[in-house]
Amino acid sequence: MKGYLWTGGDPGSQKTAAPLDNARLAPWESIAVEAVGNVIEFWGFKRNQGRVWALLYLRGEPLTAGEIERELDLSKGGVSMLLRDLERWGAVQRVRVPQDTVWRYSAETDLVRMVTHVVEEREAAFVTRIRADLSEARRLAEGVGSLPTERLRRLERMATLAEHVERALRLFIKTSRLDVAGVLGAFRDGALSRKG
Amino acid sequence: MKGYLWTGGDPGSQKTAAPLDNARLAPWESIAVEAVGNVIEFWGFKRNQGRVWALLYLRGEPLTAGEIERELDLSKGGVSMLLRDLERWGAVQRVRVPQDTVWRYSAETDLVRMVTHVVEEREAAFVTRIRADLSEARRLAEGVGSLPTERLRRLERMATLAEHVERALRLFIKTSRLDVAGVLGAFRDGALSRKG
DNA sequence: CATATAGTTCAAGACCGCTTGAACCGCACC
DNA sequence: GGTGCGGTTCAAGCGGTCTTGAACTATATG
Q1: Do A180 and B161 touch (CB under 8 A)?
Q2: Which CATH number among 1.10.10.10, 2.40.30.30, 3.30.428.10, 3.50.50.60 corresponds to the domain B27-107?
Q3: Where does the HTH marR-type domain lie (chains A, B) (predicted)?
Q4: Domain ranges of chain B
Q5: pLDDT tens per residue, range B139-172
Q6: Hey, how many other C-beta atoms are within 10 angstroms of the C-beta on B189?
Q7: Cβ within 7 Å of strand D: which of B 10-49?
Q8: C-alpha pair distances (Å), A160 with each of A130, A164, B33, B99
Q9: What is the mean pLDDT of chain B?
């Protein structure tokens, strides 16, 4: 989510899932990789975190940092950092293939868990904060003697609204988690080889 | 939502609903205004759009652009653009007080409608796009002869997941709209004076 | 130990959206 | 017409994040 339809309208400029530079990738891979990049960015992560995960997931077998670097046309340092983040979040696993010295990385299905989890944390904290701010404002406002009750009421309505939105949001996260959990089964079932 | 807990952790640096420069505003106003600014930014709009709307809403009576400029410490040009956006979205109304030459602006309760509406549009378009991309990828992949079925399956699962998330999201928007609509009643009911 | 290659770190810079401020327009009033 | 003021526009600057690339560490090998 960057510049969408905001102020200017400017429709039709939808950021394309561009073939970009990943000329190395098969077209279908490229499209899927970019799509995941978009989603992940939308949810507040870095686009390239999504791209890396998608590549690893689609390939199925572990890749080296160098391969990722080439396939996605990223810098060495960038790949290192992206992998570290993904690994820390449990979205990617670092594996060592027997009689080989380099690290390889394979996708965990947990990108999904990671997203729901982090988003949940973030959203919850945020929403809580807003509520706290609004009740603080209300407390202060009530302390002001000469405040027209009408203005106080407006403030209260604002707070009420915030609470309702919070409820809706929590509900969304909960149902969404359930729904996703179902699909996770699908991710896990198949004969998805995973080095172990 | 800017830099939250992403890569670095860095907790406790929660962006405060700072007293900022709006020394002119009563503390409770300032807090509430900033809170709304945060929310609105979180949903993908400009922080200052939220601040302007909040100020107008809390004040109850129409303000001039100059007043807004001073109260929120914004630039002339900025206020003009912010008001234009808000007006276009129906979140603010431009009113002319009898025997006065300047325009004044008053808050519509429709900020809420605006947010749900725009967010809905945006989210829907986005999600649709992702789905389209993924099925395109799938179509292409199926056209490739020598593709291991396992890899194809992974792609398919990705698409399935996207569909599920889409469903959850649409559900959220729908229930959220209903919920918000309920509160809108509360916004409208009271003896909220509106120049007419 | 010297060399080479994988991996990490981080300052510098690219990039991008938001805000500013000055030029400009339009209207009222003298 | 001239002056003043509200309002608009937009190029330039600012502030933020993300990426790069070079220096650095770690590890294997001869």
Answers
A1: yes
A2: 1.10.10.10
A3: 51-100
A4: 27-107, 111-189
A5: 999 998 889 999 999 999 888 878 877 887 787 7
A6: 10
A7: none
A8: 11, 6, 15, 37
A9: 80
